[in-house]
Design brief:
The chain has a single domain (42-148), classed as Winged helix-like DNA-binding domain superfamily/Winged helix DNA-binding domain (Arc Repressor Mutant, subunit A, Orthogonal Bundle). It contains seven helices and three strands. It has helices at 3-7, 15-38, 45-57, 64-70, 78-87, 109-126, 134-148, and strands at residues 62-63, 91-95, 103-107. A three-stranded antiparallel sheet has the order 1-3-2. α2 packs across α6 (109-126). The protein is elongated.
């Protein structure tokens, strides 16, 4: 669906204005897809992002600060999210042996198992993007990287 139809707006200040609105609208659309997929697992997109970061580092620990630097949503309260995931048994926290002010975080087997289940389901959510060919998806990725400089 064209952005003009989706938001019922015929004119835009410029193509750049239209692009900005289109990116925000599409981001919101993708966020809604992921929310629907994560809800049955009791996870927010930010919690899911943290688990993916930890899986990428597994079995090595990651500091809370390093997680914050890698988050997709940089405004997240990482300490609070980590604590919620700890309470669910999906990760463990411990004092960093090299810097007692830092906290190391490691994903648990339960967290890895949950991500494995979500990985299988995520393929279904991502089918919505298959309106693009793999080459179109690669090119769009390049263009989005270029926009962010």
């Amino acid at each position: 669906m064209r952005i003009e139809e989706a938001i019922k707006q015929k004119r835009f200040k410029s193509e750049y204005h239209k692009l900005a609105l289109n990116l925000m609208y599409t981001g919101s659309w993708l966020q809604t897809l992921s929310l629907r997929g994560l809800k049955p697992h009791g996870l927010s997109p930010q919690q899911y992002n943290i688990l993916r970061i930890l899986r990428g580092q597994h079995p090595d620990p990651v500091t809370v600060q390093a997680i914050k630097e890698r988050m997709l949503d940089r405004m997240s309260n990482v300490s609070r999210l980590v604590e919620k995931l700890r309470q669910k048994g999906l990760l463990v926290r411990r004092t960093c042996p090299h810097d007692r002010r830092a906290v190391d975080v490691v994903i648990t087997q339960a967290g890895l198992d949950l991500l494995e289940r979500i990985d299988r389901e995520e393929a279904v959510w991502l089918e919505a993007l298959h309106t693009l060919s793999p080459e179109e998806a690669r090119r769009l990725n390049e263009l989005l990287d270029k926009v962010r400089g």
